[in-house]
Amino acid sequence: MSKLPHIGTSIFTVMSQMATEHQAINLSQGFPNFPVNEQLTEILSRLAKTNIHQYTPMSGLPSLLDKIAILTKQSYGRTVSPKEEILITAGATEGIFATIQALVKANEEVLILDPSYDCYEAPILLSQAKPIRVSLNNDFTPNWEVISAAVNEKTKLIITNNPHNPTGKMWSEDDFVHLEKLVDAYPNLLVLSDEVYEYITFEQPHISVHHRPKLWDRSISVSSFGKSFHITGWKIGYVIAPDYIMKEIKKVHQFLVFSVSSIAQHVLNEYIDLVDVKALGQFYQQKRDFFRNLIKSTRLTLLPCEGTYFQVASYANISDENDLDFTKRLVTEFGVATIPISTFYAQGNDLKCIRFCFAKDEETLQKAAERLLKL
Question: Which domains can be identified in the chain, with CATH numbers?
Answer without folding.
Answer: 11-30+278-372 (3.90.1150.10), 52-271 (3.40.640.10)
